[in-house]
Amino acid sequence: MTNRPDNASPAAAAHRALNCPRCGTAFTCDLSGHCWCMDETAKLPMPAEGEDCLCRACLRTAAAEQRTTS
């Protein structure tokens, strides 16, 4: 997650419009409730250094890569 400015309202921070740092796909992140990533079976330590949240496809790809290297 990215830190929000101190003057940003909690409502404005509830839904973040993001672009995946790996592929550029646009998606939203819901910080105040049920985000799509909570339903994913892939659980990774997020975010990786220098990255923000990943889109669904990149999260699944990263989890598969981690399973094969672990």
Report on this structure.
The structure is a single chain. The chain is α+β, with helices and mostly antiparallel strands and 70 residues long. The protein has one domain. It contains two helices and two strands, in the order αββα. The chain has a two-stranded antiparallel ribbon with strand order 1-2. The protein is globular. The two termini are 25 Å apart. The N terminus is likely disordered.
Order the strands across the largest sheet as they lie in space: 1-2
Report the biggest beta sheet as strand number plus sense, adding barrel if it closes.
Answer: 2 strands, antiparallel
Helicity level: 25-40%
Distance between the termini: 25 Å
Number of domains as seen in the coordinates: 1
Q: Segments where pLDDT lies below 50 for 5+ residues?
A: 1-7
Radius of gyration, in Å, reads 13 Å
What's the overall average pLDDT, rounded?
Answer: 78
Strand residues, percent:
5-15%
Our count of helices gives 2
What's the shape?
globular
E-strand count: 2
Query: What is the H/E order?
Result: HEEH
Protein name: Cysteine-rich CWC family protein
InterPro entries: Cys_rich_CWC (IPR032720)
Pfam family, one: Cys_rich_CWC
Output the keywords.
70 residues, Cysteine-rich CWC family protein, two-stranded antiparallel ribbon, disordered N terminus, 27% helix, alpha+beta, 2 strands
At a glance:
InterPro entries: Cys_rich_CWC. By secondary structure, the chain is α+β, with helices and mostly antiparallel strands. The chain contains 2 helices and 2 strands.
